[in-house]
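Bench notes, afternoon.
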Amino acid sequence: MEPITANDLTLYPISECAITVEFGNTIDEGLMSRISRFNRALSQNPFPGMYDTVPAYTTLTVFFDAVQVIRQNDLNGNSCFEKVSGYLENLKEDDDSAPSSESEIISIPVCYGGKFGPDLQYVAEYHNLTVDEVIGLHTDAIYKVYMIGFIPGFAYMGGLNDLLETPRKDTPQKVPAGAVGIAGKQTGIYPLETPGGWQVIGQTPVILFDAHRQPPALLKAGDRIKFEAISLSEKNKK
């Protein structure tokens, strides 16, 4: 099926039971706020059969039960795509649904450098900075979680100081759970041990993903994060 463009949104099917809504093609906080408002409005006014949404940098993917949707006479259209896309096109994005204040800042302790941050020295040399300057720049900023993806609980964060923008590694390597990394204009935390290509500058003792916890992921899109440098002894106590 061909994508539909309406109200400056582009909607296209990715399966028989999922549609992606594209809001733009730039990564910025204003676009993320609009996606959050749309997602909030949809969550408050779901169509029959909808069961999940997944926000990303520039898109929102909506998942639904195709059998329930196709049976809905109140949704106009001959296919699930037509019915759901028509509903989404007419969904009112209400600015008043946005929170009146910013979310609280979540502090994440990080032990920088050494065996916990094997790429910290490289990042410093790449930018002609000292290790302490890199740590200072990384901990001074307040980051915003733009999306969760790649692996469960992995938070992609915007707000990295331009002085720390560093390319990914050419070859992915095994990365431990809790590793804090930099890739391009982003910073993030690996919630689980996995291969990864980000420049690892530290590690947090905070558990980012626990399947037995509710919700399993500690962070979500829209959260604000600030990193706090801690010593090895402090890390071992946490």
